[in-house]
Amino acid sequence: MTVVRTDSAVSRSLTPVHRPPPLPSRGLLIEWDPATFRQTLEQFAGDRSLPVPHAEVKTGSPFPFSLRVLDADVPPPIMLHPHWEQALTGFIREQARGVPLNAGNRHYKDRNPKCEVAVALTPLRVLAGERSIEELEAIASVLELPWLRSYLRFRHETAIHSVLRMSPDETKSALRETAEAVERCRSVEGPAAEAVATVRRLQQLFPHDRGILLAICMKLIQLNPGEATVIPPGCLHTYLSGQAVVVMGISDNALHAALTTEQVDLTELLQLISTGQPQPSALPVLELGDGEQRIPLWSDDLDLRRVVVGKDPKPVIVGPFSVVLAAMDPASITVEEVTAEMLPETKILYAGAPVTATFTGPSQVFVASAL
């Protein structure tokens, strides 16, 4: 998507042009592509400067995060993003061994940790971290799960450690015991009810996967639209159902544990969680009023807002460097006299002096800004 000059103070991306126009007085609207946005801005900015944040040294991106819409119609793999010490150590180790960055057995493709924030668009169920001993004991007792009872009897390691150490025959036996327990289950409450619902959900898609056993041991987080949770580096997680906007640090480091056909390095996983996992937590969302919320991230230099746009146009301040994401439904952004249409999951960059943009929907729109 490229930029054309308009008579207003803002240019928007519409059709290809071969000669870059002068920079308008206010700013530019272009399609957001982290790989090419700088070249696009240089092409159409001319000799004028734009308030583009300095790129992160390690990532080359002006934003130390990415954002996307996640649809858990099929749950993604249970995975773990290493924290910064693990990422740095693993990267150096694999570099020293000469493992190519694009190799299938390469776990650490960079030195960066990856924090993850999920903001629910629909009712959202997230599995992350590990349940308390009390919850696991309740599940084992109510559902009569011999494999879980036996692991809880010996406190030398967590239940998740024990599941990851299972032999193929032990995994097969535990899955059979779990299927039988869920089949005979009629009416339960509390953690046992959550476990039953989780197993039934995953059995439909991954009937023979150890992920079913891991999911029983993982904490279930249920979010309503607009609520958020943070998943720290070093925490096993997946999304069980629902849709969310997921904000993540810039890193390609991810170790899969289950619900996947890709390589699973159990030895490396066990090493990463040998001292335990940090736990997910609810993220307080600041209500700004009139359908606008601010979601805190991991830097004071970053601003993330969720804007619920109804039938009436809604004014929202953007700039000096903002990426705007239309979530589930089409939306449009108007700056002065120029309107850019956004299909679901489309991202538009505004770079220029802070202005009051107008959004139209109905839609949920997310505005990520570097301050």
Automatic annotation (TrEMBL):
Q: Where are the transmembrane segments?
A: none
GO BP term (any one): GDP-mannose biosynthetic process
Residues in Phosphomannose isomerase type I catalytic domain copies: 58-129
A GO cellular component term found in this entry reads:
cytosol
Q: Which InterPro entries match?
A: Mannose-6-P_Isomerase, PMI_typeI_cat, RmlC-like_jellyroll, RmlC_Cupin_sf
GO terms, molecular function: mannose-6-phosphate isomerase activity; zinc ion binding
In which domain of life is the source organism classified? Bacteria
Q: Do you know which Pfam families this protein is assigned to? A: PMI_typeI_cat (PF20511)
Segment forming the signal sequence: none
Please give the name of this protein.
Answer: Phosphomannose isomerase type I catalytic domain-containing protein
Originating species = Arthrobacter sunyaminii
